[in-house]
Design brief:
mainly alpha, single chain
C-alpha cells in the first residue's frame, strides 16, 4: 500500500474503526477529521520520531 492508498484507507475505509462495537466508545472526532489530519501529516513528511 502506498501513501496515497493509506491516506484513502484512513479517510474512507469503515475498517478503520469508527464503529467500535458494543460496550466500547468511539474515539473523539470523525473519520473525515482523522483523514484530513492524517493527510496533513503525510504531506508534511510523515515524520515518526524514534522512541
Amino acid at each position: 500500500m502506498d501513501m496515497e492508498e493509506l491516506i484513502d484507507h484512513m479517510a474512507n475505509d469503515t475498517l478503520v474503526g469508527w464503529q467500535p462495537g458494543e460496550g466500547r466508545e468511539a474515539v473523539p472526532g470523525t473519520q473525515k477529521q482523522f483523514g484530513a489530519l492524517f493527510k496533513a501529516w503525510a504531506e508534511s513528511g510523515a515524520h515518526c520520531p524514534s522512541a
